[in-house]
Amino acid sequence: SPALLADLLAATPPALGAQLTIRLPALPAGTPAGAVVHVAGTFNGWDPAAPAWTLARQPDGAYALTLPAT
């Protein structure tokens, strides 16, 4: 859930030089083809369409986003 992710990000400061990758192996059934998937939380003002927080479709069909180290 978005709240759980925000809590995890707030409670787990990254190690120096470390990055976090969010990976969704699949989208929920019924998600429209071509849907754009974003991450929202306190770190981006809960903006569900922030372009910097868009997950990219991977060759295996998963969606992923590597968060900035800072």
Oligomer: single chain
Strand content: 5-15%
The amount of helix comes to: 10-25%
In angstroms, what is the radius of gyration?
13 Å
How many DSSP helices?
1
How would the global form be characterised?
Answer: globular
- Number of E-type strands: 3
Biggest β-sheet strands, sense, barrel:
3 strands, antiparallel
Order of adjacent strands in the largest pleated sheet: 1-3-2
Structural class of the helix and strand makeup?
Answer: alpha+beta
Element pattern in H and E? HEEE
In whole angstroms, how far apart are the ends?
22 Å
Low-confidence stretches: none
Instruction: Give the overall average pLDDT.
Output: 81
Give structural attributes.
70 residues, 14% strand, globular, three-stranded antiparallel β-sheet, 1 helix, alpha+beta
